[in-house]
Amino acid sequence: MNYEQPPVTPPAPPQPLTAVEERQWAMLAHLGVLANLVSGFLGPLVPLIIYMIYKDRSRYVAYQSLQALIFQLIWWIGGGILTGIAWTIAGILSAVVIGLLLMPVACLISAMPLFALVYGIYGAIQTNQGKDFKYWMVGEWVRSTLTG
User: Fold this and answer.
1) How many CA atoms lie within 13 A of 106 on its CB side?
2) Which of 116, 131, 35 is CA-nearest to residue 76?
3) Is 122 domain-assigned?
4) pLDDT of residue 6
5) Residue 40 predicted with pLDDT over 90
6) How many domains is the chain built from?
7) For residue 31, is it within any domain?
8) Does residue 92 have a pLDDT over 90?
9) To the nearest 10°, the Cα dihedral for 68, 62, 128, 77?
């Protein structure tokens, strides 16, 4: 018996997203910041997953999700570390008057994650409206990384 195997056809290239789908996935990448409210740290996974799935189907979604990922890593993880350091220093120095004077600074630094939450929601609204949203300082760096 001569069994011939059917020819293997390569998978079809991924279809590009429609404009509505692009806005939807870009918005969801920015709204990943809301996952931090529940978990405290899982928010960056949302834009990372969206980036990995849609990077070949939409440069817009790739750009917006990579931006959201880097922004969250900087503000949530970096902000959390700075908050811990600020409160530790303020706590140690509270034995002296200088520590009491640093309490307002520690309170301001503690608001960093809240700022990131509001800014992420703003980015989601902007991308859902089809606008080319850029996070301050992160947007240009990500754009140059994607365009080469």
Assistant:
1) 17
2) 116
3) yes
4) 75
5) no
6) 1
7) yes
8) no
9) -10
DSSP designation for 5: P
Q: What angle do CA 34, 62, 75 make, to 5 degrees?
A: 40
Task: Look at the chain and count its residues.
Answer: 148
Confidence (pLDDT) at 13: 77
pLDDT digits (tens, 9 = 90+) for 15-34: 888 889 999 999 999 999 88
Establish if 35 belongs to a structural domain. Answer: yes
* Among the listed residues 44, 96, 102, the one whose alpha carbon sits nearest the alpha carbon of residue 75: 44
* CA atoms of 69 and 43, how far apart (whole Å): 8
Residue 56 vs residues 4, 16, 103, 137: alpha-carbon distances, Å = 34, 8, 47, 25
Tokens of 140: 């240009």
| Chain CA centroid to CA 47, Å | 6
DSSP state of 44: T
pLDDT digits (tens, 9 = 90+) for 47-72: 999 999 999 999 999 999 999 999 98
Q: Is residue 146 part of a domain?
A: no
**Paired tokens of 93:** 């120095």
Enumerate residues 6+ apart whose C-beta is below 8 A from 17: 25, 54, 57, 58, 61
Residue 145, pLDDT score = 74
Q: Domain range spanning residue 23? A: 19-139
